[in-house]
Amino acid sequence: MMNSKKNWGSALIAAALLTATLSAAQAEPAVPSATIAQAGDAGPAEGNEAVNPSSMPDQPADAGQPGANPATVSDPQATDPAAPASEDQTKLRNLAAGLTYEWSEAPDVSRPDGGNKLTDGKYGKLDMNDPAWVGHVRGKTREVVFDLGEEKSIGKIKAHFLQDYPANSILVPLTVSMYVSDDKENWGLLSHNATQLLWGEGPPRQETFEWDGSRDGIKGGDTDGKLAYARYVKVTFTMHPTHWEYIDEIEILGTDGQVDGAVKVPADQPRFLEPGEATAGIRNLNLLYNGQYDGGLGDWNKERIIPNISYVNTDGEPVDWLFDGVLYLGLASPAGRDFGLGQTILEDWKWYLDKTFASAGDMQQLNEATKEVGGKLNQPDRKMKVVLMIPNPGEYLSHFGDIDGDGVPESFNASDVGEAKAFENREKAVQWWLDQVRQRWQEANYSHLELVGMYWLEEQISTSATGPELVKSVSGKVHGMNLKFFWIPHSLAYKSFMWKDVGFDAAALQPNYFFGGMDIDRLEDAANMAKQYGMSNEVEFDDRMLTDGVFRERFIDYLNSGAETGLMQNGFRAYYQGNNAVYNLAVSKDSSLRLMYDWLYQYVNGTYVINNSPPPEANVFVNGQRLNGETVVPDTETIQLTWEVKDDDGSGLTKVTALFDGKPYASGTPIDLTGKPGKHRLDVTVAAAKSKTTTYIINAAANADTMKTHVNRFAEQKQFTTEEGPRSLLNYADLMKRYEGTDTARFEIYVRGFNARLDQLAAERAVSDTASSALKEEVYNLVGNLAAGKPASASSVEGSSAKLAPENAVDGFPSTRWASNYVNDSWLQIDLGEAKAFDTVRIDWEFARAKTYKILVSDDKQNWTSAVKDNGGVITAHDGKETVRFDPVKARYVKFQGVERNTDYGYSFYEFGVYNLAGGSEAPPIDGARAVVDPDAKKLTIDGLVMNGSRSKVQLKVVDSKGKVRYEGETTSTASGSFEFAIKLTGNLKGTCDAYLLMEGMQEPVKITFEYNKKG
């Protein structure tokens, strides 16, 4: 629900990185300290010592995600696997040594496990290439189960992980959990362990996740034992949705038999949090965002609310109740500060309260809507249960505002007022908020609303030293008001498993699957995780499902998953709908969308039936012609794309949506291809419950004729300031046409000449930017990208995602892209196959562009030099399509080398083009001259073009094979710049003759040689 939901796909990696470290003293008792090895240290088996995390530099994280709150770190008192055992552990040995084990999901084939890598005693070094490491990427939480052969006493479990981020996209798990069992089916919890190392940039490091019974006790069941007595051990670790996780040794320290203090651990029965007392009786909690939003979407009136609290028919009349609880929350204030990220100040808090509790404000509108619906449903006394947010009192705010009226604004920043005072001020601010809520609620005396709870807006347990304590404090205040405390952590929330320990009554974990970047098994994983932690799940969707079949399918995936996992039947649910999805579905005249509202109603009531119906086929057309695979059209055309569904079952479920070059496209919308030569991608998604996306390629073809058409159109549109400008360009296009398809070298000469003339016109401001840009695209297409389709490699790929692979930068599609990890020193290189000459590189930047970079060239991929000689080769980047020109070079390899990023993300571009445009300015003033001899008629015709497009006098001299001048004359070129001489020749011209053409200002004439052999 935080800003992460606005663009979850791109924010998953950057914004969710935990970059601060946590004081062990403030950790939950069951969470052990970290054994941290830094680059250059030996692995655990080689006796490296624990490193104090406080020696590591803090690195800021994107706010609103794990790591948003850097912490001061104390010594974690980590233990070393090779260190001498304590006196009470001297009899413990590694029960796992040499054992085989079972994986819930096999490691990646590139980082396999032969069956005993976790138990062979070989500790991985701080190098991802060490074969000791076992690698996992994507998918559900991993489980590894050990069979000890018989019940034994277990006192300690250790699991070792590698972190190498961002260089190699390897992160330690967010949470590692440890269980024991007697039957391998029912498991008792020993501990949940949050990373103490946390996430962030830096050299390779290790972390040991550890349960130590003598220190931590046993988390599950009601026992005070220090050792567990069991046969089976299970270690689980949560997976990042895109990044790698590398694990090496797992040690199970114990002894045979049952020693004193070893106990059976009662099995936990994973289950969802059920509606009831903890949820104030709410089963379905609907989130209504009432902050500051564009278009007034944060202002809730009665008409918008009614379809959110009641199920309305197609006439808009309530038929039944829908959601039985409403959560009012806001993110942005009018000043642009974010309530969830801890940015807002007292002024913003007052604005939100005034807005929410105004006499005709959001709360009153909800009251009126509930009253009206209750009356129409003959339940006039029905009250809507309400939960209201508590803003995040950001711990780095130095000037929050004057809460107590003493004239001094409170600071929440420990560096200003000290840790204790900062904590006290944050508590004071929350107490002020709660007092205001109670006072305003009582004054309003809403007839049809019941305030039942408060909602903690921060979506994770803060990584700061005081983070858990603040939530505990606020919990006490909320419970003191006889209200319930609600929380909806995001999928990568830090320490979400300790939600009950800090005082929350009801928690619903966000799967975040809807927003992209995750596979569908994320829903099952989120459900399993929620059950393990005793919380529930949120159902997520937004208005994108109205226009995009993929998002509609994801919404249905949530419904199906809820029915499959039991969430629909048994669990408390929160519902994220963006700003207005429920209302828009309810009033939609599109039957396929209205059906989604109906299904939502069924889900809320527990009657939804799983629907996985496949989509029908669709025929797709361009300008009325059937599309099959790839279609070529001239880039002078305006195209319209349409489709029709075959064999639709008439259920109203089928919906067709499309993307053209990655952007939503509505059927029949005209697309002018001017300035868009090359390949374009149309993705058509036909969706029922499931969807199928078919990709069609439309190749907008450019050639000499299309070039001439574009020039003429721009001339007609007055895009040139002189008549000579378009004429000269047309002359180059005529010469391109002459050699097109027959002489590639000559053709490219005139393409380059066209380009040079276009540059000259642009420099003289004789052509508009619109025309110049469009014609430039034609030039680049015709001269050809030397890198197109060539092998590409990169230092890294963001999230190891195939959708962001380096080859996407040279595939010719304007909507696909490469993206690196978040490292300044990142590169992408192209193998041109052989050494080629070039003088231009074009980069089409995505948002995540460089601030500075270099273009390097090489013949051996070992020795690199800069193509740009100025400023040490460092180039300052600019948004959009950037062109870099330099003196011609010849090389086989071309490399983009990042120097410094412009954003917190890596480097990303849609296309990387390499071109050779040199030599275009060398065309003579007269070009294309040719001589045609007709011996029968004794006629010689000489024609050509004045390349600057002006009307000019052209002189001709013809000299025979003996050196005798046989003709001298003069003509004036036409308005288009063409000229022609038609000459009647007499006498014997047998042999090789020369003709010379000259214009004023030319130093040397143009010479044409021809053969003349008089018949008879």
Automatic annotation (TrEMBL):
<dbReference type="Pfam" id="PF00754">
    <property type="entry name" value="F5_F8_type_C"/>
</dbReference>
<dbReference type="InterPro" id="IPR008979">
    <property type="entry name" value="Galactose-bd-like_sf"/>
</dbReference>
<dbReference type="Pfam" id="PF16147">
    <property type="entry name" value="DUF4855"/>
</dbReference>
<feature type="region of interest" description="Disordered">
    <location>
        <begin position="35"/>
        <end position="90"/>
    </location>
</feature>
<feature type="domain" description="F5/8 type C">
    <location>
        <begin position="775"/>
        <end position="917"/>
    </location>
</feature>
<dbReference type="InterPro" id="IPR000421">
    <property type="entry name" value="FA58C"/>
</dbReference>
<feature type="signal peptide">
    <location>
        <begin position="1"/>
        <end position="27"/>
    </location>
</feature>
<keyword id="KW-0732">Signal</keyword>
<feature type="domain" description="F5/8 type C">
    <location>
        <begin position="92"/>
        <end position="255"/>
    </location>
</feature>
<feature type="region of interest" description="Disordered">
    <location>
        <begin position="103"/>
        <end position="123"/>
    </location>
</feature>
<protein>
    <recommendedName>
        <fullName>F5/8 type C domain-containing protein</fullName>
    </recommendedName>
</protein>
<dbReference type="InterPro" id="IPR032329">
    <property type="entry name" value="DUF4855"/>
</dbReference>
